[in-house]
From TrEMBL:
Gene3D superfamilies: Vaccinia Virus protein VP39 (3.40.50.150). GO terms for molecular function: S-adenosylmethionine-dependent methyltransferase activity. PANTHER family: METHYLTRANSFERASE, UBIQUINONE BIOSYNTHESIS O-METHYLTRANSFERASE, MITOCHONDRIAL. The keyword Hydrolase does not apply. It comes from Serratia sp. (strain ATCC 39006) (Prodigiosinella confusarubida). CDD domains: AdoMet_MTases. InterPro entries: Methyltransf_11, SAM-dependent_MTases_sf. Keywords: Methyltransferase, S-adenosyl-L-methionine, Transferase. The keyword Ribosomal protein does not apply. It holds the Pfam family Methyltransf_11. This is Class I SAM-dependent methyltransferase.
Amino acid sequence: MNTNWTEKQTSELFDAYDDWVEDHFGYQPMIADLTNSCGKEINVLDYGCGGGKVSRRLKSAGIDHVTGVDIAPTMIDKAKAAGGDKLQYVHISGPMLPFSDGSFDAAISCFLFINIPERLELSHVTSEVARLLKPGGIYYVLDTNPRTTGIQYPTYRNGEYGVTYHDGEDRPVYLNIPGQQSLKLVDKSWDVQTYHQTFSQAGLTLIEEKELKYVNNFDNPDRQNFNELQDTKPFIMFKTVKASC
């Protein structure tokens, strides 16, 4: 069974997680690509925003307006409490969102697909994002790389070493929480082909698929270098576009 993100304790522990690996090797490359492709005077949807960490990073990168949505009320409360100019957060109860067609220039989903337990729901979410995008709008999906499991990274491990996870199979994830024991989550393992099919069914065209590398390049002594991780690829980013009229 996948992680229940509506549980308060799970949400609070996850919010305490130090996501510097995801930030350096996932969020930063994605946000740089987004601003290069779309500019900064845009309206961006963060579908599955959690506590708003990535939404705030989008704003820090100069994005004009960001709207975050999530099913976890505790997460939305934390996002709202963190504040921020031109940041809007909305609690949702399902895939459908209370916005008009073509409301957004771009959309992102970070580690959302791996938390969706059924293919049908993947289709519903992606189709809803497609509805909300303007013609020519871009949708980024960032997830853990299904081709890289069982590797211990400085702050987490995605799956068990030596185990192959099939499409739709549950996969354990262990997060290192400062001052706490590790938080065990249960994600869903989706093959890359499932992402491709989901995008296509929603009318989105895949324009780039990129495995993002881990690189040891930190000057901060608190960030221990793990030489054996050099050039491993913990994350995968899909860049899709909605057809223009």
